[in-house]
Backbone:
């Protein structure tokens, strides 16, 4: 139910800065006038912070300076006072060791900016993988009315008339290059054709998954998440969001009114129907915790069993985000899934999810399958447990080779990424297609930040023989655009002494997806004996943010948030002195 509250100007949070006849308020007003604004621009109006993750290294958000102007147009029209504030950009491919290391830092920045400035409501501008969760986690913790403007997917890639998909086709053609099936010139043409416009990855990677989830949770306008970034509908959606946030402030519609247990369940079901990124598990757990909800991994398993996989998109399927939008978009998918969803969940429109999606329908059933004719009867993400992963691991079965889902093989263990790079293409490496590749020390603390190393490359000599998939196990994540039989997020991670630390090359590992198990076939006694000889590694960071990160980051099954942020405790609103 929408709040029936309607604020007065004197009840605005920003009024505490601008309203009083005090020495400090004099300073706040005079400095606003200093910027060229008149009193009519801001007096009695909601101050809307437009939190913009644009930077010249943020390749997926390079249209965000223009989009911020579109948002502002909407805010002005609706009677608000827009202020654009840059926040940390997390550019997926540039930032090392991984953007995941900085998701929590972005969330802290968002919370603290909203807390410390005279802001009444905010527009969160993000899209590239870690920005949707980072922005939303911070906004949830601060609790001011918030709306999310997704960056939108880029256009389809093109190479010699063939469609290219972000990430997925990079891995695919890299193997073809290594196998000698394409030339260096082909590879260069692919490089020039795979990212043809502004916007986020257009496969069902982490950006597409997370923006769809944020919309399903209720934080974006209907169908916002699938509009291609260069489409003229995109700036119109941005200005609509600017208009809407002003009303959200007057209505006092806060993130915790929107993020409820039913909306969380809706998000899990949509993740399954999309065949979405494994990264979403970690982000959803962290987001939910900021609103006071604990999400066990079993919830994904439980809802996944009764949620079919419906959206035929790469890397699990065939199509791309442009096709998804033209087929009706996320709202059409939600309409199809109506019997599975809590349609009374409140959203940023002030209406229920069910009301928002009423007018949408599917135009192409090749892309969005009917509920009764799914691609798979169950969601494509499976949770595994066993003596290798007592606290859980995940496998994306929709993007795996069915014949490898129940498989026994000898482990080849790489102690870290450098060790893997050294050994992988060694012609003397004792490996065949039945082997299981194991990468450790790539988890939340070991990576650090769980880099997307979980789709380990296939050894060159096997690629040349035509092998394109093997069972791979790690405590890393993998890109949402990746594919293959990859067991990921093994928890607890090896860096802190999880069982992956104790596996040796030559051990037999059994993956049994039917029984939801992942085990190394050694006795408990042998495991314990190995544990006695294991010793922790030296911390990688001795100062600064790295040290803060490794001392406070939680494990994958807990969402990788910082222990001191991971709750719904109310943030302190500052006194104005
Ligand atoms: Fe930005 Fe994929 S690199 S969304």
Residues:
């Amino acid at each position: 139910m929408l709040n029936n509250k309607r604020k007065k100007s004197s009840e605005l949070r920003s009024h505490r800065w601008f309203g009083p006849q005090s020495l400090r308020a004099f300073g706040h007003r005079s400095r606003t006038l200093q910027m060229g604004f008149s009193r009519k621009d801001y007096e009695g109006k909601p101050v809307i912070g437009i939190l913009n993750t644009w930077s010249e290294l943020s390749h997926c958000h390079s249209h965000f300076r223009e989009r911020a102007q579109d948002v502002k147009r909407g805010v002005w029209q609706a009677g608000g006072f827009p202020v654009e504030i840059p926040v940390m950009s997390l550019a997926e491919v540039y930032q090392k060791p991984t953007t995941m290391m900085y998701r929590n830092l972005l969330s802290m920045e968002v919370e603290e900016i909203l807390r410390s400035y005279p802001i009444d409501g905010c527009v969160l501008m993000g899209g590239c993988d870690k920005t949707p969760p980072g922005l939303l986690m911070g906004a949830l913790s601060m609790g001011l009315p918030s709306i999310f403007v997704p960056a939108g997917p880029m256009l389809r890639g093109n190479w010699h008339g063939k469609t290219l998909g972000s990430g997925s086709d990079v891995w695919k053609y890299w193997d073809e290059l290594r196998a000698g099936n394409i030339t260096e010139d082909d590879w260069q043409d692919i490089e020039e054709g795979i990212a043809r416009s502004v916007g986020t990855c257009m496969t069902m990677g982490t950006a597409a998954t997370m923006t769809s989830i944020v919309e399903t949770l209720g934080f974006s306008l209907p169908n916002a998440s699938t509009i291609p970034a260069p489409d003229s509908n995109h700036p119109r959606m941005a200005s609509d969001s600017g208009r809407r946030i002003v009303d959200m402030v007057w209505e006092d519609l806060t993130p915790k009114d929107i993020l409820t247990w039913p909306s969380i369940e809706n998000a899990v079901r949509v993740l399954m129907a999309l065949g979405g990124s494994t990264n979403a598990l970690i982000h959803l757990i962290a987001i939910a915790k900021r609103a006071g909800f604990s999400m066990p991994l079993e919830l994904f398993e439980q809802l996944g069993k009764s949620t079919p996989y419906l959206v035929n998109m790469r890397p699990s399927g065939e199509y791309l985000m442009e096709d998804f939008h033209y087929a009706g978009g996320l709202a059409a998918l939600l309409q199809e899934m109506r019997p599975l969803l809590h349609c009374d969940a409140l959203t940023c429109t002030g209406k229920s999810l069910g009301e928002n999606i009423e007018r949408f329908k599917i135009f192409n059933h090749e892309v969005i399958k009917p509920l009764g004719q799914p691609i798979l009867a169950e969601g494509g993400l499976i949770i595994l447990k066993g003596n290798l992963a007592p606290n859980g691991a995940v496998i994306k079965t929709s993007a795996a080779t069915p014949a490898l889902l129940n498989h026994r093989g000898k482990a080849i263990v790489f102690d870290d990424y450098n060790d893997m790079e050294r050994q992988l293409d060694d012609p003397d490496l004792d490996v065949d297609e039945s082997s299981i590749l194991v990468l450790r020390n790539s988890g939340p603390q070991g990576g650090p930040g769980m880099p997307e190393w979980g789709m380990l490359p296939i050894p060159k000599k096997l690629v040349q023989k035509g092998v394109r998939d093997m069972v791979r196990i790690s405590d890393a994540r993998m890109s949402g655009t990746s594919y293959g039989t990859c067991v990921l997020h093994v928890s607890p991670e090896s860096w802190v002494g999880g069982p992956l630390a104790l596996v040796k090359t030559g051990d037999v590992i059994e993956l049994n997806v039917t029984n939801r198990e992942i085990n190394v076939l050694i006795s408990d006694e042998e495991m314990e004996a190995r544990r006695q000889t294991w010793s922790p590694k030296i911390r990688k960071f001795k100062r600064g943010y790295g040290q803060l990160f490794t001392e406070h980051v939680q494990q994958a099954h807990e969402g990788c948030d910082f222990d001191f942020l991971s709750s719904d405790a109310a943030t302190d609103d500052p006194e104005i002195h």
Observations:
- Residues 233-251 form the longest helix (19 residues).
- The longest strand covers residues 406-414.
- Residues 60, 92-93, 128-129, 166, 200-201, 205, 207 surround FE2/S2 (inorganic) cluster (CB under 6 Å).
- DSSP finds 21 helices and 14 strands in the chain.
